[in-house]
């Protein structure tokens, strides 16, 4: 039985990494991986005891050897188990999470791409509700995802906790590394979302795919035009009609974007939907072998 898309991907790749010899926390709640300085693979986890970020392990790109990590410098804010990790300006790896008490986005830690050093982050400027007066508090989020959008600007997208609609919580300018508050994203009103995943589709346009909170079907919640950075509402995606418990999104053959999900009833893997890289059209998928 497939327990999660993340676990399935790790097993398929042949690298089911477990945390070992972490200085501050040997036990982790969750792990995420991305390439950092020198192409070295970084495995980031949230400590089970203190809910703080850890470099669990890292792999040297030169010979494939693995090395023990350490507790990462951070603002000291306890984080929810879900993290998102991606390269930002200058290729510096960014670790973003949600505070466990306020559900707001934090740059937990970041790695300098030139020397591999890690540095503490800070509370990110974040989106407020539409029509909110100046000084209004940012919207609390239930989950986040992160990917590079137009001009390589890093985009942090979240689901608002109170109405399940997508928000551009915060974004980083690729030219100078500055962070900026986002806004409510245009989306189909029927798409009250339970989870989201992001990846670049046709022409490099950033696609935010989510599961409907009520019907558990895949939606294109919103997408960003890579040429001018504008955001546009999506629509319900064509699919095999099965209710899904989780999704992952990544480019496949010929750059066609693939949405993979787990059937909520059978726990089997489905190609829920896919996008043609040549013209941007979306097509229904099928049960995966």
Total E-strand runs: 20
Strand content: over 45%
CATH superfamily of the largest domain: Glycosyl hydrolase domain, family 43
Q: Choose one word for the global shape.
A: globular
Structural Rg = 18 Å
Quaternary structure: single chain
- Reported by name, the CATH topology of the largest domain is Tachylectin-2, Chain A
What do these coordinates show?
Keywords: Signal. Residues 1-19 form the signal peptide. It is a single chain. The protein starts with a helix and ends with a strand. With 289 residues, it is mainly beta. It has one helix at residues 5-13, and strands at 28-35, 41-47, 53-59, 66-71, 79-87, 93-99, 105-111, 118-123, 141-148, 154-160, 166-172, 179-184, 193-200, 206-212, 218-224, 231-236, 244-251, 257-263, 269-275, 282-287. The chain contains 1 helix and 20 strands. β17 and β18 (257-263) form a beta hairpin.
Which short descriptors sum up this protein?
signal; 20 strands; 4-stranded antiparallel sheet; Tachylectin-2, Chain A; 49% strand; mainly beta; 289 residues
Care to give the gist of this entry?
With 289 residues, this protein is mostly beta strands. Helix content is 3%, strand content 49%.
Question: How are the SSEs placed, and which strands pair?
Answer:
Elements: H1 5-13, E1 28-35, E2 41-47, E3 53-59, E4 66-71, E5 79-87, E6 93-99, E7 105-111, E8 118-123, E9 141-148, E10 154-160, E11 166-172, E12 179-184, E13 193-200, E14 206-212, E15 218-224, E16 231-236, E17 244-251, E18 257-263, E19 269-275, E20 282-287
Antiparallel strand pairs: 1-2, 2-3, 3-4, 5-6, 6-7, 7-8, 9-10, 10-11, 11-12, 13-14, 14-15, 15-16, 17-18, 18-19, 19-20
């Amino acid at each position: 039985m497939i327990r999660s898309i993340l676990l399935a991907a790790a097993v398929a790749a042949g690298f089911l990494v477990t945390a070992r010899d972490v200085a501050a926390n040997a036990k982790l709640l969750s792990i995420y991986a991305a390439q950092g300085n020198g192409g070295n693979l970084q495995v980031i986890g949230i400590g089970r005891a203190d809910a703080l970020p850890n470099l669990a392990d890292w792999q040297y790109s030169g010979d494939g050897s693995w090395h023990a990590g350490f507790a990462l410098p951070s603002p000291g804010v306890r984080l929810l188990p879900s993290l998102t990790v991606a390269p930002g300006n200058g290729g510096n790896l960014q670790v973003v999470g949600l505070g466990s008490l306020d559900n707001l986005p934090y740059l937990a830690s970041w790695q300098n791409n030139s020397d591999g050093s890690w540095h503490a982050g800070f509370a990110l400027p974040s989106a407020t509700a539409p029509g909110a007066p100046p000084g209004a508090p940012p919207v609390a989020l239930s989950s986040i995802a992160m990917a590079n959008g137009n001009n390589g600007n890093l985009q942090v997208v979240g689901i608002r906790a109170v109405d399940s609609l997508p928000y551009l919580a915060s974004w980083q300018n690729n030219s100078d590394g500055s962070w900026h508050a986002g806004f409510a994203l245009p989306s189909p009103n029927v798409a009250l979302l339970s989870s989201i995943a992001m990846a670049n589709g046709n022409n490099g346009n950033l696609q935010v795919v989510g599961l409907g909170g009520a019907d558990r079907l895949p939606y294109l919640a919103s997408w960003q035009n890579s040429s001018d950075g504008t955001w546009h509402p999506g629509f319900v995606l064509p699919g095999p009609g099965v209710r899904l418990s989780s999704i992952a999104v990544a480019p496949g053959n010929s750059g066609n974007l693939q949405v993979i999900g787990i059937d909520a009833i059978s726990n089997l893997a489905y190609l829920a939907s896919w996008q043609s890289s040549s013209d941007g059209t979306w097509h229904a998928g099928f049960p995966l072998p």
